[in-house]
Amino acid sequence: xxxxxxxxxxxxxxxxxxxxxxxxxxxxxxxxxxxxxxxxxxxxxxxxxxxxxxxxxxxxxxxxxxxxxxxxxxxxxxxxxxxxxxxxxxxxxxxxxxxxxxxxxxxxxxxxxxxxxxxxxxxxxxxxxxxxxxxxxxxxxxxxxxxxxxxxxxxxxxxxxxxxxxxxxxxxxxxxxxxxxxxxxxxxxxxxxxxxxxxxxxxxxxxxxxxxxxxxxxxxxxxxxxxxxxxxxxxxxxxxxxxxxxxxxxxxxxxxxxxxxxxxxxxxxxxxxxxxxxxxxxxxxxxxxxxxxxxxxxxxxxxxxxxxxxxxxxxxxxxxxxxxxxxxx
Amino acid sequence: xxxxxxxxxxxxxxxxxxxxxxxxxxxxxxxxxxxxxxxxxxxxxxxxxxxxxxxxxxxxxxxxxxxxxxxxxxxxxxxxxxxxxxxxxxxxxxxxxxxxxxxxxxxxxxxxxxxxxxxxxxxxxxxxxxxxxxxxxxxxxxxxxxxxxxxxxxxxxxxxxxxxxxxxxxxxxxxxxxxxxxxxxxxxxxxxxxxxxxxxxxxxxxxxxxxxxxxxxxxxxxxxxxxxxxxxxxxxxxxxxx
Lengths: 329, 242
Ligand SMILES: Nc1ncnc2c1ncn2[C@@H]1O[C@H](COP(=O)(O)OP(=O)(O)OP(=O)(O)O)[C@@H](O)[C@H]1O
Ligand SMILES: [Mg+2]
Known about the structure:
The structure holds two protein chains of two kinds. Chain A is mainly alpha-helical. Chain A contains 14 helices and two strands.
């Protein structure tokens, strides 16, 4: 109990830091604030991704396509129908969630790698679809999308995406703490035992997948109306891999680990891109290396490091009620 | 009254017939033993009953209804509990959470705070030796078997299928296990147990069936089965004492 309480306070502290960060040099500059927006965008995606990969243990390789689907839905609704981006973003989430439902019903009866590969195919098919209906999407030429806010400054966008990150995190963490979360973890850790304990896996797998895809679509809507231009590249698998790397480095099965680590990682990567602008893709190499280091030395990722520190602190303070640290949540 | 009725259960894996035309009943309130040499098809038969495998032929009636081919989660919610030959814990959940899963999803009649209470009670019931907060991945083999039993009991089964629960236990632990299983039965749970430890079988079981190469070769009370010529042959050369 005490541990959970303390962790919540720590998380609130981190949140406060993130919220005042744009006022602390060098983040007062527009370029740096743009990095912050990108970081929060990655954090929100990593949370939605880990909700699936870290709990039901299925990697949605088509994740970026669901982000892109939400982006295009919201973009097209705004361009062709004049619908407010705020509503469009929710519509984007709904469409992604619905396509997630179809994908889930199709793939989640398969296990592990087969489900992952099927989700990947669906993602590639979606990208192909967007590319091949240029009348609606303008294909690779790019779709110019109205922006979300009047202002062209990054600061208000930062607070919008931070709010979306908080909502994504709060909703998904709440689900994880419910009986649904217990079912997700049971299914992800031992399918046969979950079945033998009365859990209908397909039902919970699909619910999990739909929620993850819906948030991906909603977050994608933000992307559309922030950058103002959409190309099918938003759906590239390399974007999924970036999100995956952040989620895994943050710690599988830890939503807060993914959310927190996304900031230093994503900002560090932007920095690298500037330093090595002649080497495109250098950030993917960095992610790859970090991922390998994490897998070998700390499979629990950043979250496990924090938990280790936590129990070390508790142990080195006698008189404190030290209990065995509860498992990930 | 029979709580479980198998008739003509057959399960094939490719060309191998692991279970061949097996028919028997388990009566409500008894402890029923299923024995047989390695590879006889015992685990496969349990899986066919529990809904993990679909038999190629035959029917299963459980608690008065035809349950042939129903999925394992349905069978669990209908009141069939099962432990696995090799325990299958949720490794990154605590001991308490492991049992909580079955209490939450396995018993449709359980709600609210009663769920957590049931989980705690079941751990006490099997006298689980370690803290409920321990991660399942930190348990040893004997503890995992006990956890598996607590998990199976948490869904409040009418019938419990046990697959070699006593394998690897010391004589002292064996006596504890015998007492525990008897207590479970006395609390109204029918037990169908697969076991190699003959001492336990002879001590507990009201009736036995013997499986060999997927076929039932003997059936009856312990004395009858032990005297059966085919059973003695089946076990010849193996160090089982009948
Ligand atoms: N999933 C499977 N696929 C193919 N063959 C299988 C499968 N499961 C079991 N078998 C085979 O079916 C036969 C019966 O196996 P089973 O595990 O049911 O035996 P058992 O009586 O439980 O043996 P043991 O006492 O060693 O546990 C064996 O020959 C085994 O190799
Ligand atoms: Mg077996």
